[in-house]
Amino acid sequence: MRLIEKDYYTLGEVVAAWEMPRYDVVYLAETGRMRLSVRVCRTHIERGYWELEEGSGWFKFPEERTRYTGLVDLKEQDAHLIFRDGGAEIATFYTSEGSYCHIEEPSTPIAIFETDLLLRADERRRLEQGKTKPDKGLVKPPFTHDATYEHVEYCGRHFRFGRIQANIVRQLHEASETAMPWRRGEELLELAESGCYRLVDVFKSKPHWRELIHSDNRGAYRLAIPPHL
Predict the structure, then answer these.
(1) Predicted confidence band at 58 (pLDDT cuts at 50, 70, 90)?
(2) Exposed, middle or buried, 160 (CB in 10 Å: 0-12/13-18/19+)?
(3) Most CB within 10 Å of its CB: which of 24, 84, 184, 194?
(4) Tell me, what's the pLDDT at 2?
(5) Helix/strand/coil for 122
(6) Burial class (CB within 10 angstroms; exposed 0-12, middle 13-18, buried 19+) of 102
(7) 2: Cβ contacts below 8 Å, ≥ 6 apart
(8) CA 157, 162, 167, 168 torsion: positive or negative?
(9) pLDDT (mean) for 78-90
């Protein structure tokens, strides 16, 4: 019997064929060395790109709105949540730098479980061929963090944050993945349970913090990273 040609495979059947332990699979996915995908069905998707307007911040420009059925790729931080918790609700997906892809109304974020994870056929071939030169999508991203956001790297600079500082960075990173990346300073401080009244006082011990966090000079803040990260 001739096997059918597939465009994608379940993660389970690939791992079984590779005889790879789960912890290695998790490592490859969480570090972006293996790009996982999921299949969506008749889901409202918006795709576009981000542009930086000087003095105002990042703005998105839609290029396509469609009711889409097919594969979308996962960001490594979402793969981490799925492996850690068994599942996660996802609304934004991995794209090349400078662009975005997310679910828009009337569709809602989709629940993705470990059993839903897929591997595109071309991604499987790339991994099995032992490609040594990473493509652009696998280059280490300019913004990385540990689970608690106490250790953050941005464009080659390492930041080590205390608990409250890390909480604020986490809030801003979560906001960067939404349509409203700016957050009011007082809201950030309150949710971080800080006794300070100004964000500058929280980060005054970090001389380069303004490279990571931008202000609109009207009391709102956002991460300096492009919003799709």
Answers:
(1) confident
(2) exposed
(3) 194
(4) 54
(5) helix
(6) buried
(7) none
(8) negative
(9) 90
